[in-house]
Queue: 2 jobs
Job 1
Amino acid sequence: MSIQIKTFASLSCALALSFGIVGAAQAAGANAISVKDAWVRWLPNNLPAAGYATLVNASDKPVDLVDISSNDYGDAMLHQTVSNGSSQKMVMVDKLTVPAHGQVAISPGGYHVMLEDAKHKVAPGDTVHLQLKFSDGETLDTPFVVKSPAQAN
Ligand SMILES: [Cu+2]
């Protein structure tokens, strides 16, 4: 009896595994863009947070990031930090091109996703979701890990 149960369990494991592999292969074929190292630098006192990620383009055509939204924040905008002499300022970015077979980093000192007006309490250790919309029509619902300023360094 116990042998039968074991056999059944390992069979369903094998089935789940093979379905998982098929699903991953289909996803890779459908999406040009994948996102890695997605995280948010959280700040206390409801200060705006900043989202960072690396966008990877597996296709042979450039793809633009054209819009960002989130159910966790009222406002999610792509900004670029530019330095003019001694000071720095942020400018709005309409689109960010991910080169064919290349990648672009949204990283501290360069680009960031400005996240304002959190719709609920967000704390380090949480995961928030951003919807990244691209020029080829795909939208990636992407989990971002929330880090404290100390964890971010
Ligand atoms: Cu900003």
Job 2
Amino acid sequence: MFIERIRAMIPDAEALFSAEQEWQSIRVNLLKIGRDELVERLHEQFEVKPIPWCEYGLFVRGNIAKMLEYFLGYYHIQGASSMLPPLALEPETQEMVLDMCAAPGSKTTQMAMVMERGIVVANDVNIKRLRALSHNIQKSGATNCIITNYDARFMYKQGFKSRAILLDAPCTASGRIIKDKHRLDQWNYHRIQHMSNVQKMLIRSACECLEKDGVLVYSTCSLEPEENEEVIAYALERFDVEIEPLSFTGIRTRPGLTSWQGRRYEGLERAVRVWPQDNGTEGFFICKLRKY
Ligand SMILES: C[S@@+](CC[C@H](N)C(=O)[O-])C[C@H]1O[C@@H](n2cnc3c(N)ncnc32)[C@H](O)[C@@H]1O
């Protein structure tokens, strides 16, 4: 069924199934080292090249998880497409960002790194994953993060308000097929429906927490329309939010789907889909909403 669904979404489904990830990716931790200095250090052992869409991202060939520089927090191992949602949010250097589903903290530490005097409130419901989040924040050297442990579906009931929110939602992660073809064995439509319901509760909460004129970036690493366009359509129908056009340079992206299984999704062409076969990365869905 997964295969038929993908064929109904894109004309080049076969390319997705044969896509390979040839390069690993890392994000230079500018709090601890300059990009050129790290490249120089890694060049001795690895083939390294820039990630065209992220000035502090690098593609690396080889096992980079055992390097001294890694343990020192000079870089964070992070999917090259996973660097996009914080770039879409463009947090200002003095503001406060709410990262609703933050663990293990790849995007939290990316935002904390560029925010200077800004603050990231990094929240996650899962206490075990909060440990990894806390470890990654400490390792990065960021001192501008606050960790919270709420069920984000109900965070709006705390009266929490923010002008910038990242909702990197829990998902079925089918975009990771490029890393792990066995993911297909676990593909299950009921899981998609369940996740879609959770995601709708999360985006509802995010919209309620968002200040007027504030910006919300919704992202998943799932390819399933029920977890992406459907969730955005749900928010557009119920809350005072509209889609902001989104574009990235240096990466091939495709527009969000405007229909699926007989349902039309108005304006969803302004969302962005990153398909694994286009850039040799994980798949991602990213949509930027503004509250009016
Ligand atoms: C895709 S992961 C987030 C990855 C993270 N943003 C990063 O870049 O490292 C989704 C996270 O959502 C968390 N989560 C799931 N349900 C949640 C809820 N109701 N409230 C808050 N967090 C939740 C999971 O524990 C998981 O850590």
